[in-house]
Design goal:
By secondary structure, this protein is mostly helical. The protein has helices at residues 29-50, 58-72, 82-110, 132-141, 146-156, 162-169, 173-200.
Length: 207
């Protein structure tokens, strides 16, 4: 894993720093970026991981995210929008990574080389931590359609607010609220079905 201390800066990370935007930016582009890097490294790492990047590619993709952030940070005029902007950068970078990976895998298959090459996971949820409760959570979320699931994960796991989600996805605020509500209802229904199956089979269900 990349270390957040890789950037040499005297700026200290505020407690719980990845959960809120700084009230103001330091002067100078380098110190500004260094403060953002220290504050949001964990947030970027966990977001990229949940968006489906394989462990072997994490360092490269996270580095690419921060390269974009450095190049475009001057365009962020309002610090309160910084976290949602960073998530959007991460989301677009991961999307590009997946497209490149699909092209590479398709080319390898066409040339009939490296038949055992790892293919892009069907969904980001295949990369969930090998914890039984977490695996169950992601298994149940597979029953929720993609648009609603994406909003659910952004709110419940990435701890983004609904206005931030609406801005990142470029959807109306009411649509974001509607998708979250529907996703929660679908998740509860999936959990109830799983619990009923577990009870009939004599198993236990915990999430």
């Amino acid at each position: 894993m990349m270390a957040a201390t890789a950037v040499d800066t005297d700026t200290e990370t505020p407690e719980g720093g990845d959960q809120a935007a700084p009230s103001s930016f330091p002067s100078g582009e380098v110190s500004r970026f260094a403060a953002v890097y220290r504050q949001y490294f964990d947030f970027v790492w966990s977001s990229v991981r949940r968006l489906g990047v394989s462990p072997a590619s994490m360092d490269d993709v996270v580095q690419e995210v921060f390269i974009v952030i450095y190049a475009r940070l001057h365009t962020v005029q309002h610090p309160e929008t910084l976290r949602s902007w960073i998530y959007g950068v991460a989301r677009r970078t991961v999307s590009g990574h997946h497209r490149a990976r699909r092209v590479k895998d398709a080319s390898a298959a066409a040339l009939a080389v490296e038949p055992s090459a790892q293919l892009l996971p069907r969904t980001p949820f295949d990369l969930a931590e090998q914890n039984e409760q977490v695996k169950l959570l992601f298994h149940l979320l597979e029953e929720v359609d993609e648009p609603k699931r994406e909003v659910f994960l952004m709110v419940e796991l990435d701890e983004l607010t609904i206005p931030e989600v609406a801005e990142i996805l470029e959807i109306p605020l009411n649509t974001a609220y509607s998708r979250l509500r529907a996703a929660r209802e679908a998740f509860e229904e999936a959990l109830a079905r799983h619990s009923a199956r577990s009870e009939r089979g004599g198993g236990r269900c915990r999430v």
